[in-house]
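chain below, 231 aa
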Amino acid sequence: MTDDAVPDLRASDADRERVAGILRDAVAEGRLDMAEFEERLDATYRARTYGELAPITRDLPAAGVTAPSVSLSKQPAGGPDWAERIVGGEGSSTWAVAVMSGFQRKGRWTMPRRFTCFAFWGGGEIDLREANFTDREVEVNAIAIMGGVDVIVPPGVEVVVRGIGVMGGFDHREEGVTGDPGAPRVIVTGFAFWGGVGIQRKLTRAEKLRIREERRQEKLERRTSRRALDD
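prediction:
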């Protein structure tokens, strides 16, 4: 068989899953954005030959797809490395104001030891899912007057609520959930008058995609097992 014929060899389900694993690692490391990840993942599952798989990871710093033996391996996904995310220093932002308007703090930013925000006839969002933290314990001091503030934390973070509401309220649903070892504690304080401070616990988009792909892989494995039994 000539080298020219190798790219035409048919790829297996295992080959496609190894490439999908490299793509998931790349998006977690910031090498691919979400749009690129989804586009390449779709191309991966549509690929039928080694020649179609090879370009998908060619520009990524991992072993490329080589035919006929693909030696790419997917490492098991772990939880957040909290030690790396508690960085000390100063926060990238320490306050925010929304008067008949709104504000957001989200993405890659550094949460200070104390973040103070004020919302009057407006709303704000403090998203800590991808944030770094200046300390093991940080505080969100939220004042909402006829407005609202949403605090979004990732799984594993402990939440303590100490705010006071007058004809308004603070969300206590996420309070009391045990945090991961080494994870930061977020204390939510402040005052709400005809307004509210909500607290939500959400996965990042990358984690949601990882879980979705794991479920897809499980379905694929079950389908492969059924085919083997039928044969």
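The radius of gyration is 23 Å. The chain is about 25% helix and 30% strand.
thats it, cya
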